[in-house]
Amino acid sequence: MTEQVKINGIRLNKNYIQMTQVDIDRRDQPCVPLYQILASDKINMVFIVLNTIGDRSYISGSIASKHLGQPARQDGNLDYHRNVCIISIYPHHYRLRSLGFLLSLMGRLKLSFRHMVSSNAMLTFVVDQTDCDAVIDIFSKNFDLPESHVPFEQEQNEEFTQFLKRKYPETRATYVEKKIKTYGIALESGLNLSFYLFSFDRLATFGQEIQSMEDKENKFFHTSAYMETPAQIHLFLLTGKKLGIPARQTCAAELINFHGPHFGDRHSIISRALNCLSEKSIPVLQTGCTGASIGIVLPQGKGEEAKQALMDVFEIP
Amino acid sequence: MSEKKLILVVDDDPDLVEAVSMKLESLEYRVARAYDGEEAMEKIKEEKPALVILDVMMPRKNGWEVCDDIKNNDDLKDIIIVLLTAVADSVKTTSYTHHDGKATLADDYIPKPIDLDKLMEIVGDHCQ
After folding, report:
1. DSSP per-residue codes, B10-49
2. What CATH number does the domain containing A180 carry?
3. Model pTM score
4. CB-nearest partner of B96 from A91, A169, A259
5. Could B113 and A160 be called an inter-chain contact, meaning their C-beta atoms sit closer than 8 Å?
């Protein structure tokens, strides 16, 4: 029997709306990026993925259900999905085995998802709320979790959180800094970004292939996926070494990774990060933001310039 | 050669736990991870770390309670606790100050966003 993959936890956030803006790079139909629209309306996105390579460019973000009907302004081809939830497992330790196991599991058990993105600790999926219990149940049974673990649900702890906020007034989502504080901006160079396009039926096999690529020398640095109807998966994988799985497109890339306190609770952060790169005409291949972490994949050679540009907006105390 | 000290990193932000853990591992510490107060107490009793880097606001059991439980337990009270909390200098409403942080039973305190090098310095000083 295959040994279970050990993780420490599952995190769950319910009652979100998924907004996806596709074909964001069409020159004949320029649109204001979703993250800018939401930032101007002071609406927070707890999950975001942006892609500009492969067969389809898109930005997709999750906003709380209370913002239903917002934003007032809608640019581009904006697609809404109500009633989604966000499920994360952590930590993945950048292991191809963990990622491959997860994809294989979802493929074998026909668990569909809308989006996936990684942070430096988490692998996060946006799934329809109707599938939420099944996904949590399957993850709980198939991963090796601490005995006392219960999936952490933000909503269920709301009362407790409010109590703590009153008793120990912390800073959650209550401040806007001129320069946003981070824990440091890390740059990884010499990486390979691969784009795979395949049907959902192949997900289990693809996951197994990824698992078999595990070795001490290779790990993944960033990954994201988008499941397009009908069950066509666009999957992106940033690795140190090229994998032996034929990709539809590959390119040399660099990764900037940073995070800060309560990034996931505060609006405008991703907008400020991407705007400062855009102002300096620095192209972005992929962006993923989940929890308190932001990952930006850039063409090889652009990382240092991007890091300098980000330092205009972010600071390391 | 001295035995590698075990450090427990506790925060409900998995990304922060990972960043701190990787830094500690690069400095040859052994690292255990926990993501809420209950899990932290289990790991503390099980593994008896030399030092705990402890977030304050966490689900199930907050950092203050964990700190009190450790420091009021004769078997655990010698474990060093470094508290972390997200107090930004631009916040005007908070009553939680550096001074208050020091006034707890914790051995040391560092505000978020943490300077990882400063945190490693604190850990190094306590783990000599």
Report:
1. E-S-HHHHHHHHHHHHHTT-EEEEESSHHHHHHHHHHH--
2. 3.30.70.260
3. 0.86
4. A169
5. no
